[in-house]
Amino acid sequence: MNSAVAAELSVNIGALRLRNPILAASGTFGYGLEFAHLVDLNRLGGFVTKGLSREPIEGAPAPRLYPTASGMLNAVGLQNVGVRAFVAEKLPVLRKFETAVIANVFGYALEDYAEVIRVLEDAEGLTGYELNISCPNVKRGGMQFGSDPVLAFEVVGAARKAAAKRPLWVKLSPLVTDIGLIARAATEAGADALTVANTYPAMALDFRTGKSRLGNPTGGLSGPAIKPITLRLVWETRKAVRTPIIGLGGIETVEDVLEYLAIGASAVQVGTASFTDPRASQQLVEDLQRTLFDVKWFTLNEIRDRFPSENS
Ligand SMILES: Cc1cc2nc3c(=O)[nH]c(=O)nc-3n(C[C@H](O)[C@H](O)[C@H](O)COP(=O)(O)O)c2cc1C
User: Fold this and answer.
1) Which residue, 73, 127, 183, 256, is the most exposed by fewest CB within 10 angstroms?
2) Looking at the annotation, which residues are catalytic?
């Protein structure tokens, strides 16, 4: 391919400019470093770290993954090294890469989210934050932050106050009646972008033993099975707000990427596909470049918002 006529893949997510619209998704790409010998991190639009909490978490009992038709279930239990070990051990190595590093942040109370961000704010080498609000709020009887607009507003507001330096993305839960309500609440509380969406709570069991196929009774469903459902959520979000959207759910091929962009996402993330092929995200950048070249579209503006929403 003649690079002089290569398509321009860079995208703006609010004030943030990414080299291209393909990022690796949280929980499926470790802290990036584990993939650096297989993937050229500098070719990606960026990647999102495993979810970080105030204290290290050991996670759920095995088995943690179970394959299902067109996807898989996971119950990892948000295992992570804790935010301080991330800053001390992972970030110094990540700094030598020229890729956007987005820290995924979670907690079980407002103060947890704010505290994790405060620790990260003092560190060099991060591009932004992605708030996972699919966690139960222990102080409010376990109700998910992401399923109630008031709770979502509060947690995003608390994080926004702590995140003075960097962009704040909010990753929405798919398990809601009206995702537009949560999207509006997150936007009003200061989100710079919305990541749509997380996994779908689901189950698999062995009828012989009567036990879960996972160490936990339930897990999160991801992979191609969820793509059509999540595409609709992106569309609903697009209709509700003008906030930039990062779409993810079941992306495996360049067509999947283009569908998400056409329905209103500004960028996408690749999750489960990295389990079958660790190079999936980089491969998609190359496929996107080639596909745009073939159809003679030289910017992503040609594809963006092709699918009409009342809001576009
Ligand atoms: C094993 C595994 C671990 C995950 N861990 C996290 C996490 O720590 N934080 C988070 O926000 N999402 C997490 N996710 C959700 C993914 O980032 C993504 O939203 C979901 O898998 C849907 O995308 P996909 O179908 O491309 O995998 C995890 C997903 C998987 C499969």
Assistant:
1) 127
2) 135
> Could you read off the pLDDT of 8-17 as tens digits, one per residue?
999 999 999 9
Q: What angle do CA 161, 238, 255 make, to 5 degrees?
A: 115
CA distance 298 to 302: 8
Chain mean pLDDT for the chain? 95
**Sequence-separated contacts (24+) of 61-67 with Cβ below 8 Å:** 61/215, 61/216, 62/215, 63/213, 63/214, 63/215, 64/214, 64/215, 65/214, 65/275, 66/204, 66/213, 66/214, 66/219
Residue 173, ligand 1, Cβ within 6 A = no
Distances 311 to 11, 21, 210, 235, 294 between C-alpha atoms, Å:
20, 22, 48, 10, 30
Ligand 1 atom at shortest distance from the alpha carbon of 25: 17
Question: Which among 134, 168, 303 has a CA at the least distance from the CA of 243?
Answer: 168
Q: Is residue 230 in contact with ligand 1, taking CB distance under 6 Å?
A: no
Write the single-letter amino acid at 12.
Answer: N
**Nearest ligand 1 atom to alpha carbon 64:** 1
Do 169 and 145 meet the contact criterion of CB atoms below 8 Å apart? no
Convert the pLDDT of each residue in 42-52 to its tens digit.
999 999 999 99
| Region label for 190, one of left (φ > 0), alpha (ψ between -120 and 50) or beta (otherwise) | left
